[in-house]
Design brief:
- The complex is a heterodimer of chains A (about 190) and B (about 180).
- Chain A is an all-alpha fold.
- Chain A contains 7 helices and no strands.
- In chain A, helix 2 packs across helix 5, helix 3 crosses helix 4 and helix 6 runs antiparallel to helix 7.
- Chain B is mostly helical and about 180 residues long.
- The chains are: A mainly alpha (about 190), B mainly alpha (about 180).
Chain lengths: ~190, ~180
């Protein structure tokens, strides 16, 4: 706990073991695809207060633009923000190591048997709840932006293109984000 | 030794695909299928889709697990571990590098504009993926109300979200959904 460089005037540096455990929790709780985002925000922003609302939104945005599993990217960035390379390694290890071993052992076992109907039904019930949590997390992230009509408009545009027009994600990002950024730039310039 | 060279070419392929999997690994799944099923015949189509369903059902890093199962079929445990690393290693390095860049330009005058423009779009996409997931698991009004109630509980209360997931699982197990 004497690492001053990682401190960055935010009080005590976060212990690597704490990062490992937090990311392990995010990973284990995040059942299904997007579920991890719900827990990443709850644990890193609300409970531990390691990063602010704005930093979290930055990280999620950045990860959308990168290839690979976004939620692992969020863990990587949170770790990097708090403790640099060591933090990134601790976060990714926490996120993947134990869940991978459990999931892999379980999966190899399952490959021997056909899925039971009751298990399938249970999983689909969990999926319904998980979808609701993801929607609510998005709405919570929107809170700081609720007074900006342009922000609401561009959030809505991304939403509509994805859900109703079924446009692939990379195209939505490349199409809407530059316009949204340009608009924000113009607005800021005219305020100055 | 044939299996190990198979595993090597699978690992190389996965490392390449994970580096270009913009929008998440599922976007390159069709390419993985072509490589594994059509080009090399390591798995049948049926086996490949079984692995997909299995990976979706298991909590944890789904796509990394799925590629591990593929590696497992090709070259046992070493194949599984190599495939896992190939799936998350290259993207993690890129995440790290890009975050360091973002952090370095924290004071730059263009950053607030990029943030103000980019973040709302991201949020729209987060809500969209929740709605898409809800659509995928929609089986009727009961399923929809589980989704809506868990969203409302997360927004309006401080209840631990694990309870919503447990509740959904319990309702599903009773066959109500």
């Amino acid at each position: 706990m004497t690492d001053v460089t990682a401190n960055r005037e935010r009080g005590e540096p976060v212990a690597l073991s704490a990062l490992f455990i937090a990311c392990l929790k995010i990973s284990l709780y995040g059942i299904g695809g997007g579920g991890g985002l719900v827990w990443a925000r709850r644990i890193a922003v609300e409970q531990q207060r390691w990063i602010g609302e704005q930093d979290f939104a930055d990280i999620v945005s950045l990860c959308q633009f990168m290839p690979g599993p976004n939620i692992v990217g969020i863990a990587t960035c949170i770790g990097t923000r708090l403790r640099g390379v060591a933090g990134a390694v601790a976060s990714v290890a926490g996120f993947l190591l134990i869940p991978w071993v459990i999931g892999f052992a379980f999966g190899v076992l399952c490959l021997q048997y056909a899925a039971l109907p009751v298990v399938r039904h249970m999983l689909s019930g969990i999926a319904c709840a998980a979808a609701g949590l993801l929607i609510a997390t998005g709405l919570r992230m929107m809170q700081p932006y609720r007074t900006r009509p342009a922000a609401i408009f561009f959030a809505g545009a991304g939403f509509v293109l994805m859900v109703f027009a079924k446009v692939p994600l990379p195209i939505v990002l490349l199409g809407v984000a530059p316009i949204s950024i340009a608009w924000a730039g113009i607005q800021r310039a005219s305020l100055r | 030794m044939n299996a190990s060279s198979d595993a090597l070419s699978l690992t190389a392929r996965l490392a390449l695909l994970s580096s270009i999997s913009f929008g998440g690994f599922p976007t390159v799944l069709p390419d993985v299928r072509d490589f594994v099923v059509a080009n090399h015949g390591w798995l049948t189509d049926q086996e490949f889709s079984n692995l997909f369903a299995l990976a979706q059902a298991i909590p944890g890093p789904n796509m990394i697990l799925m590629m591990s199962f593929v590696g497992w079929q090709v070259w046992g445990l070493p194949g599984a571990i190599a495939s896992a690393f190939a799936t998350f290693g290259p993207p993690c390095t890129m995440y790290f590098a890009s975050y360091c860049l973002w952090d370095r330009f924290r004071e730059a005058h263009w950053q607030p504009a990029v943030r103000a423009g980019l973040v709302p779009v991201t949020i729209g996409l987060v809500v969209a993926s929740g709605v898409v997931m809800a659509g995928a698991s929609f089986t009727g009004w009961a399923a929809l109300s589980v989704t809506l109630v868990s969203a409302a509980l997360l927004l309006g209360t401080r209840i631990n979200p694990l309870w919503m997931l447990l509740g959904g699982g319990a309702l599903g197990a009773t066959g109500l959904l």
